[in-house]
Write the structure tokens for this entry.
Amino acid sequence: MRTFLAILLVSGVGFMTNTAVADDVHVAVASNFSKPLQEIGTKFKAATGHDIKVSAGATGKLYAQIENGAPFEVFISADSKTPKKLVEAKQAEADSQFTYAFGTLVVWSNKDGYVDDKGEVLKTGEFQHLAIANPKTAPYGTAGMEVLEKLGLKDAVTPKLVQGENITQTYDFVSTGNAELGFVALSQVSKDGKLKSGSAWQVPEEMYTPMAQDAVLLSKGKDNAAAKALLDYLKGEDAQAIISSYGYEIPTHPRRDAKSCVSTSANPC
């Protein structure tokens, strides 16, 4: 009996050790990157055994939650300045911040042929609602406002703006027809260089501040091997292939190469 109990105890210790190898990591992710992260998370778990628990939202709102003690261990932002602020506030680990992708802005409608490939639809004013993410908390919203200013349309279009809490809600406004068109992320409307539905104008990069999207290890995750492993995985070839397939540019590729082009009948890549 003593031998049997000893075997059980040894087996139990072995079981506990094996399960301890795999861990969870709590990730705060900008809404535009939530779908790519789902794909990455599946491959990450298969490769490492670690699982990710995701909370998606506007970058600014996630920042506020982190400041208020939310239990996030990794922050995958839609900009670079917000992770930097967390590093400076000693709420994220110094030297862990890196750029995982460059975001691309598009004007999109769920209607075929509604948005032309030069964005002239914005100048016609023949629409009732233009959706945009809150520019105070969402970098894609900030970029959208920069475009309107560059085009000299800010004053004329402002009364028609429908503001989403984040880029996901902004996309929902357009996809449901509550807004005829809107500023959204290329990653939301294309896959492998092809537009999923509707019509879009890929906004030229010179019309808005480049959106370097950075990730950082938060202080709450500094002792979590799964958190560190996820950040390492984001830099690897498998993750970068997924990121690129959603229309993002990754730091190892030139800006605005063919990989980031959204192909339409009016603008084949």
Observations:
- Confidence is low (pLDDT under 50) at residues 1-20, 254-261, 263-269.
- The longest helix spans residues 2-21.
- The domain at 23-102+210-260 is CATH 3.40.190.10 (D-Maltodextrin-Binding Protein; domain 2).
